[in-house]
Amino acid sequence: MTKIEAKLEDIEKVAKINIGKNLKYYILTMGCQLNENDSEKLCGMIEKMNYTKTENLNDADLIVFNTCCVRENAEDRLFGKLGEVKKYKEEKGTIIAIGGCMMQEKHIVEKLKESYPFFDIVFGTHTLHKFPTDLYKIINNRKRIEDILDIDGEVIEGLPISREDNVKASVTIMNGCNNFCSYCIVPYVRGRERSRMPKDILTEIKNLAKMGYKEITLLGQNVNSYLRVEKEKNIEFEEYEGVNSFATLLQAINKIDGIERIRFISPHPKDFTDDVIEAICNCQKVCKLVHLPLQSGSTNVLKQMNRKYTKEQYLSLVKKMKAKIPNVTFSTDIIVGFPGETEEDFEDTLDVVRKVGFEQVYMFIYSRRVGTPGDKMENQIPEEIKHERFDRLKQLVESQIEARNKEYLGTIQKVLIEGKSKNNDNMLTGRTDSNKVVVLEGTESLIGKIVLVKITSEHMWYLKGKEES
Ligand code: SAH
Ligand code: SF4
Ligand code: F3S
């Protein structure tokens, strides 16, 4: 029996036990799009095991928390939630499963056992596919299970998946990270970088296209090093439709009928080779918004962060892309208050923000992560300085976004309609190529289509427009 057959057999076993019981599950995903994509796989398996989704904790027979640990607030959130679900466990024996990145941290699992011992399953990032087996064991003998692997688990292809959206889909193209930026916990909890095979990725995307999906977001911690480790270590991989790098992957996806838009997060500035820039330029389906994580604008801080590029290299990369890719726009991630960041260093960050003019900036206050080199650095920045810098950065970013929004007024944008607006049932919502939210009037028949929209008003986080006839 192959590994995937064994997994599907466990799913069948639980499904049989659950049949006719009208069981429900609740899932809460914390963290990034990779985690969301993992949750979609969990949902796929859980639904095949005859649970239906509920948004109410108190209706659930199975509660799953898929955790993140990239910053401290994620931990506070999990412990808060666990406090909340304890009563359901006591009242009706709800099965409680906790998985994801935080479970790869030994001190957290210890804390769980000490302070929240009522959980049934903890599973890590390398054992996602074993969830049905763990659940089967719990249903049978209710003995708590810890299913966490330290080593890089195999990624099993072909598990069921239940996707959140029916216009846009995320596809993980690689797992893990080898960069060890000194602030970041991800390499420790997601393991070493490994790429999925071209054939598996392309088959998945072709199937998504057949199902009517229009937009694909390729996910990975360092997408533009796709297949690099395999090449460096002479790990055999099978080329498929000419795909042997990130640039060729973009080109192959660009040819898939039905897919209209391709996005990717996150590339690393140090690996932004010319072939990728050319692919963005030549592939008409690849969106011209490039998410290019800056983290800091100071060469000193970047060195301490182990990012492997300087302020000047970042700016010249942006300059090169602006020259080569018509209508290119940028978004970024920035951390303020990394150990040793001086006022001058912070000014460098503001300087890069002013020079690039980002469409969107995801701003973070540096958070110490146990086990990372950053945590051991002595010159930690006091909280009030971190907050003060964060507020100054936020002000600059918001004033830039306001100015950028004004430039959209009166323009005609290609908007992929994603669905009804959450706040107003009579309105539709969609996104421009540059990922700006656009709200407009229109009928449901437009959902999943790219329509031309004239922008009529701008607001901080969205634009309003009218369909061009
Ligand atoms: N692999 C991606 C990002 C992964 S984590 C990349 O390299 O861009 C997402 C973002 O969280 C990072 O870009 C960074 O800005 C932020 N982040 C990571 N660790 C952090 C920490 N310890 N404190 C604050 N922000 C952090
Ligand atoms: Fe973390 Fe750096 Fe890897 Fe991104 S590239 S996941 S920031 S270590
Ligand atoms: Fe993502 Fe958080 Fe894990 S950002 S990779 S879910 S630590």
Protein model, in words:
The chain is an alpha/beta fold. Helices cover 38% and strands 21% of the residues. The chain has four domains: 3-147, Rossmann fold (3-Layer(aba) Sandwich), CATH 3.40.50; 165-287, 2-Layer Sandwich (Transcription Regulator spoIIAA); 289-407, Transcription Regulator spoIIAA (2-Layer Sandwich); 412-467, Nucleic acid-binding proteins (OB fold (Dihydrolipoamide Acetyltransferase, E2P), Beta Barrel), CATH 2.40.50. The protein has 15 helices and 19 strands. The strands form five sheets. It has a six-stranded parallel sheet with strand order 2-1-3-4-5-6, sandwiched between helices. The site of FE3-S4 cluster (F3S) has 11 residues, from helix 2 and helix 6. S-adenosyl-L-homocysteine binds at residues 70-71, 183-184, 186, 221, 266, 268, 293, 295, 333, 335, 364, 366-367, 369.
Short key terms for the protein model shown above:
4 domains, 469 residues, 21% strand, 19 strands, Transcription Regulator spoIIAA, Rossmann fold, binds S-adenosyl-L-homocysteine, 38% helix, single chain, binds FE3-S4 cluster, alpha/beta, binds iron/sulfur cluster, 6-stranded parallel sheet
